[in-house]
């Protein structure tokens, strides 16, 4: 007998709340701690935002849990790939770090969209700078862990839903 029944809607709303917390932490670091985000940081925030929106829609829609779980995991894994690139750039020897770019505002105003997107996804010299370390890991490394956890969290709904349906029989 299950005392607590698994609820995919609640699970997705919890994932959405986690994404909101990650975005709030990014805003705190930018506006309170005055850490200026690099292009890869902004790309990671957009991936967190998209994952959170997918989780929100999944919680509201209350149908097609498997589809939302897979799409949410894909979104989180895209974010994880951006974070992996960021961590890789931070571990390059100084002579192999790409050149710094002009500010993002300048890039958005003067560069073609394709070049701007490429810059946002590949990173620049600013992305190699390490602004802070917590428990031995950089901010992009913690973001990578968060993305992997979000992907597992999303896919876990499939397993939990199937497991709860089997035990209810």
Could you explain the architecture of this structure?
Disulfide bonds join 38-41. The chain crosses the membrane at residues 42-60, 67-88, 139-160. It is a multi-pass membrane protein. Residues 1-11, 161-169 are cytoplasmic. The chain is mainly α and 169 residues long. It has one domain (9-168): Up-down Bundle (Bromodomain-like), CATH 1.20.1550. 71% of the residues lie in helices and 2% in strands. The chain contains six helices and two strands; from the N terminus they run αααααββα. A hairpin with a 2-residue loop joins β1 and β2. The longest helix is centred in the last third of the chain and has 30 residues, at 139-168.
Give me some keywords for this one.
single chain; 169 residues; mainly alpha; Bromodomain-like; two-stranded antiparallel sheet; 6 helices; 2 strands; elongated
Shape: elongated
Strand content: under 5%
What class would the helix/strand composition place it in? mainly alpha
User: What's the average pLDDT?
Assistant: 82
N- and C-termini, Cα separation: 10 Å
Biggest pleated sheet? 2 strands, antiparallel
CATH architecture: Up-down Bundle
Q: Give me the strand/helix succession.
A: HHHHHEEH
Number of helices: 6
Helix content: over 70%
Radius of gyration: 18 Å
Specify the CATH homologous superfamily. DsbB-like
Strand order of the largest sheet: 1-2
Provide the number of structural domains.
1
Total strands: 2
Write down the CATH topology: Bromodomain-like
| Low-confidence region ranges | none
